[in-house]
């Protein structure tokens, strides 16, 4: 239960103690890795100490952010615009609808420009007002004049339902891991390597949090052979949720 509430805090972007974040991710990694050893997270350089295969191991951890939400077209900004569009579309539809039909809608989008939110919401509301709503997935031809709209599914509610929820859904796939950006992360950590306490083995663990729009990416089917890793004995890329582990030094997937 405690892990669940911690997960919610991370999803909300609430400030969380750095050590608690490291423990949260490292426990998931160990479970996926198939090692059930206790560990010490009291250190800083490196972050984690534990025993593996009879050796002392020091683990430096870092998260792989591909988008911190600052750019105008970032994933976070797009999510915010899409949520605003969904909410406003529902308000406009329900305010203009003269029928007793209550609907819920699940919508997915291409990128939305900030200046398009209001007009886009009006177009979606007008689209639904113009249709004979019987429920189901709309044909692409129904909204071919609305390029930002990628997918729409309508649910017609029962007469005794008193509230409707319109939802934003994810569609499409995430980007593949960018090897050049990954090399930069490794270089930054290797530049600090001589400041770390040394163990029999020294690892670097790079975290991809699948629930975080600023981090999620697909690490499979990527060629990591061009990576230069000079100091760490092992470097792992770990995607939570899917429990994917990639051995970057060996250019091989350990857990798909």
Description:
The chain has 256 residues and is of the alpha/beta class. It has 2 domains: 2-66 and 175-255, no CATH class; 75-168, no CATH class. 29% of the residues lie in helices and 22% in strands. The strands form 2 sheets. The protein has a 7-stranded mixed beta sheet with strand order 1-2-3-8-9-10-11. A 4-stranded mixed beta sheet has the order 5-6-4-7, covered by helices on one side. Helix 3 (75-96) crosses helix 4. The longest helix is centred in the middle third of the chain and has 22 residues, at 75-96. The radius of gyration is 23 Å and the shape is elongated. The model has no long low-confidence stretch (mean pLDDT 88).
Short description:
The protein is an alpha/beta fold. Helices cover 29% and strands 22% of the residues. The protein has two domains: 2-66 and 175-255, no CATH class; 75-168, no CATH class.
Radius of gyration: 23 Å
- The residue fraction in helices comes out at 25-40%
Unreliable segments of 5+ consecutive residues: none
Number of strands: 11
Number of helices: 5
Arrangement of strands in the largest sheet? 1-2-3-8-9-10-11
- Coarse structural class: alpha/beta
Beta percentage is: 15-25%
Question: How far do the termini sit from each other?
Answer: 27 Å
